[in-house]
Amino acid sequence: QTCLRGRRLMEEFCRTNDLPFELCGKVIIGSTPQELARLHTLYEWGRANGVQCQIIDRDALLEREPYAAGSKALLVRDAGIVDYPGVVRCLMSLAQEQGTDVLTNSFVYGAREENQYVILETNNLTVHARHVLNCAGLYADRVAKLLGQEPNIRVLPFRGEYYELLPRQYCHHLIYPAGDERVPFLGVHATRMTDGRILCGPSAVLAFSREGYKRFTVVPADILDTVLWPGSWHLARSLWRTGTREILQSLSKKYYLRELQRLIPAVKLSDLRPARSGVRAQAVRADGKMIRSMYIKESQRVLSVLNDSSPSATASLAIGETLARNLMNRLRLD
Question: How many Cα atoms are found within 13 Å in the side-chain-facing hemisphere of 60?
Answer without folding.
Answer: 11
